Amino acid sequence: xxxxxxxxxxxxxxxxxxxxxxxxxxxxxxxxxxxxxxxxxxxxxxxxxxxxxxxxxxxxxxxxxxxxxxxxxxxxxxxxxxxxxxxxxxxxxxxxxxxxxxxxxxxxxxxxxxxxxxxxxxxxxxxxxxxxxxxxxxxxxxxxxxxxxxxxxxxxxxxxxxxxxxxxxxxxxxxxxxxxxxxxxxxxxxxxxxxxxxxxxxxxxxx
Length: 207
Hints:
Layout: H1 2-12, H2 17-23, H3 28-46, H4 50-78, H5 84-103, H6 108-129, E1 137-139, E2 142-144, E3 147-150, E4 153-160, E5 164-170, E6 191-196, E7 199-205
Antiparallel strand pairs: 1-2, 3-4, 4-5, 5-7, 6-7
């Protein structure tokens, strides 16, 4: 009688909810956090933000560690027997992170942000060169920071990490030339790299 009651109790006891969550595939919130981490990484890469990268890297490491622990437990508990949809939900996370990591090793994201903003910044350039204001806020996908006129155009800062800053310079007459007003004792002279048309990338280091 006792054995029957014990067996009945065992059959009626469902797996603990917490255990199911630990051995089941990633849920909605894990995907939401992963998407947020991916967007942070793409933003940091597209504007070479060192400080944003310092914030993003630990988030990626924590996500990877949690995924690895949960995946290992799920495989062990289920002895590798999981449905195809469950396998897909598990594998989607490292595939997405790996793809983004690979893309951020190139200039593709930075170039895409520039291309998507090209119409807006070209319009801004025409207005500024005609004597318009340099105070702009968001232009395209860029939050225009410090903006200054140069000897043959203007430039604006996209990211200022404290030890260095970079941005875009507009110069319809060849390489940008700094004016006396551009010199700041806190920064070295600017380095320029041609991007497209009259647009150049400029960067400065802390002096």
